[in-house]
Amino acid sequence: MYANEIEADLTEVLVTEAEIHAKLAELARRIEADYEGEDLLLVGVLKGAVMVMADLARELRPHINMDWMAVSSYGAGTQSSGVVRIVKDLDSDLTGRHVLIVEDIIDSGLTLSWLLGNLESRGAKSVEICALLRKPDAAKVEVDVKYLGFDIPNQFVVGYGLDFAENYRNLRDVAILAPHVYS
Ligand code: 5GP
Ligand code: MG
Ligand code: MG
Q1: CATH number for 60
Q2: 93 lies in a domain?
Q3: pTM of the full predicted structure?
Q4: ipTM of the predicted structure?
Q5: What are the residue boundaries of the Phosphoribosyltransferase domain, all occurrences included (predicted)?
């Protein structure tokens, strides 16, 4: 399906494009029911959540708003440290608004747990989380995810927005990156 040189970098496709779209449609129906008659602000975390945001937002029938934040976790390599810095802040005022954070993946949970606290402190009416993927075996802190796509094994994955060294974000599926690529 992918060009041969990309195929060689992947061990296994974990979640296919079709499975992702079916799941996002299912989550969108729940979100519509839960926020019926309310305004909703989707907050996407750059850059990994771009694909989830684009597909989830287009699944949602009612009026929504979108805003973006970029955060960086201090710490080397593939491990997040829990010390988070805002690289690009929201343009929106959150006072009195229902906010849904849209994320690609929850690994240790440190980034989202920090972000949740940060957005809650801005006077939002509610702050909830929608994440496409979660690695339960990697959790260092519990994060209360209201809308979850898939639990996956504790392996490094790429595709559908997720990168390794800024590569593979454009793959349509989520796949395990072959160890020879990063070792
Ligand atoms: P956490 O703070 O939950 O450990 O990780 C947060 C961020 O690390 C995620 O939003 C994502 O950008 C990155 N990350 C965690 N696991 C993976 C993975 O398996 N693949 C990729 N490409 N990024 C990951
Ligand atoms: Mg992310
Ligand atoms: Mg990354």
Answers
A1: 3.40.50.2020
A2: yes
A3: 0.95
A4: 0.95
A5: 19-164
